[in-house]
Amino acid sequence: MTETLQTDVVVIGAGAVGENAADRIVRGGLSAVLVEAALVGGECSYWACMPSKALLRPGTALKEAQSLAGSREAVTGTLDAAAVLERRNSFTSNWDDAGQAEWVAGAGIELVRGRARLTGEREVEVAATDGRTLRISAQHAVVLATGSTPSVPPIEGLDTTDYWGTRDATSATEIPGRLIVIGGGVSGVELAQAYARLGSKVTVLARHDILGSFPEPVRALVQEGLEADGVEVRTSASPASVRKSDDGGVEVSLEGGDTVSGDRLLVSTGRHPALDGLGLEEIGLAPKKLDTDDSGRVMGVDGGWLYAVGDAAGKVLLTHQGKYEARATGDVIAARAKQEPGSAEPAAWSRYTATADRYAVPQVVFTDPEAAMVGRTLEQARADGVNASETSLEIAVAGSSLYADNYRGWAQMVVDEDRRVLVGVTFVGPGVSELLHAATVAITGEVPLDRLWHAVPAYPTISEVWLRLLEKYGL
């Protein structure tokens, strides 16, 4: 039996990004139906941001205690793996989304559980989990917030070998004795360190270098931190094939002849927008990649009624940036429905555009040491035609010396010399993630360096590195 439903906006995907889009739409005075085939709250809540950081934090806290004379003498033993996993479970609500669904209802959003696909202009069909078929007509817009899915590398034997994806690693109930990680990106190195500190013997296989988008000093310090925890990091290591070993584990054969053996294999080689099965071909779009403007509107759709946000849009695959896009898109959909001034063709940096996607994307790697970066590297800035310079130094201030004995860190700022403003900032070191928002504000606000010099860092904090950077620059 097919039922019909009318609403102002349909949002497909009830992860953090879809929730934000629907919330802003309802706050703007429209009605919204939120469709989700899995758990409300999405990847970040149950298999990515929250559980991975819950796995990492206890090891970092232990290391922090061990890094200070006086406290290190009081620390005995190692991590309690069972307690860490149980605490991880609390952050995922034991993979129960009742609380998230309750929030959706309280926000005035109608939740439909099922798998959605586009069937025409502003038309969505849902195969509901309760067996019904729903046809939902949207008065104004449809928003795709379907997230992303892991990219599986073409390695011989992988399709017939049991392996972990990142979901399996963040929700695991066991700590393998030997863990092989294919992939040296953010998730790969974070999970490698988490499992090493929980007791695994970990080998990371990176086709090129680890954290390839970060400057070399960042990569070097993070690799040093991994190796200090017993992780074997093998760069320029290209897996040729994998197979189940005779002892029930797994063997990875590398190009060149080497073989790496483990009890578990984790494949973490990136993600791509989850667009399959959405019916994009029904409205004349390619089902693999979308082109959106800064308001989230999908280009090439007559009537401009289709939007995409977060990983589904394929611009920046980061939860916080996706939520930012969702807020802008939700607001602009509501404003366009009411024909509010400035919403039809919104200006850059208005509340209706995700302009920061182009200039000021913050990201953190929660390894120990942490790596934090916002904006553009020197190479990226110059490739964009910016007359850019860089200033970098080791983090060696009173605050860092107090933070940890033998503190090691590095900082860099990239300056647009024509405008004398920051366009990129990078930190690596223990605790540097808390420095990042100041850099994000400076870049987003285009604070002139001469004015930034008057932002006096409190003493003694690691933020004193700002003063040292500006002094080395010449202020």
TrEMBL record:
Residues 8-321 form the FAD/NAD(P)-binding domain. Transmembrane segments: none annotated. InterPro entries: Class-I_Pyr_Nuc-Dis_Oxidored, FAD/NAD-bd_sf, FAD/NAD-binding_dom, FAD/NAD-linked_Rdtase_dimer_sf, Pyr_nuc-diS_OxRdtase, Pyr_nucl-diS_OxRdtase_dimer. Its cofactor is FAD. Keywords: FAD, Flavoprotein, NAD. Residues 232-252 are annotated as: Disordered. This is NAD(P)/FAD-dependent oxidoreductase.
